[in-house]
Specification:
single chain; about 300 residues; alpha/beta; two-stranded antiparallel sheet
Length: about 300
Amino acid sequence: MIVIRHFEEKVDWLFARGKIMGTSHLCVGQEAIAVGACAALRTEDYITSNHRGHGHFIAKGGDPKKIMAEIFGKATGYCKGKGGTQHMCCTEVGHLGSNGITGGQIPIATGIAFAIKYNRESKVVICFLGDGATNQGIFHEALNMAALWKLPVVYVCENNRYAMSTPVQEGLSVEHIAERAAGYGMPGLIVDGNDPLAIKETVVRAVELAREGKGPSLVEAKTYRLLGHSKSDPRQYRTKEEEKAAWKNEPIRRFVDFLKKQKAIGDDELKKIEADVQAEIEAAVEYAENSPLPGLEVAFEDIFVYSNEAAQ
């Protein structure tokens, strides 16, 4: 979680100073979900992600240097600088792509789950999605299909209370997003999204069901997006008091307090972890800044996967 937090805060710092172009959607405050859920997976399992996906990628085993290089648009990035912040993937660690379209990753995850079942593999795919995506039609179509065919997929909804600036309750006809699972005959599980241990425990149960051929689950992890929707969001739709309360409940502070009470970590060890992580992130930035831009000759590469290559 600390690696993700420092990575995201550094990306925010770089955007503010014009060192990275475009925009980015950060997951500060939601680190526990990525870490807890990915801890329930094996290396060969898959994830799909959304527009707020740096944390998912790091938690699944992505190299911060190559992720940072991709955000910089450099040739050493995971997608040779052509995917950017919203369209990164790495099959070696089972990260099959983030997606800039709201809900766009949901049918992809469902399709991957179908392929897993069709090929009689024991893998599982986790689909990370936001609360706003659950109001898209494709969410309901995909969950219906996954339940009907008992596909090995776990939908992990990060309910951070706002779909951009819209409070989640203004787009929801039930109290909890997890209640929607009942309409498709699948388990709907609610978990504290700021508690990595609770998330892991909950997702482990869902992954076990999927791996046993008992079909999908919908996990609703209740959390809070501590920063804006994107770098240009002034957050005028919520109060300073609300944000102040959320910072007191943020996952890293809570987990550190828990570890200290368990006498599992001391101040000196914590300082060393912080220093090591900061050095790792600074090295990632240096790697990205010193990497070359992709050449024009690669502009039309990696667009199609031909059938004979896919078969191999």
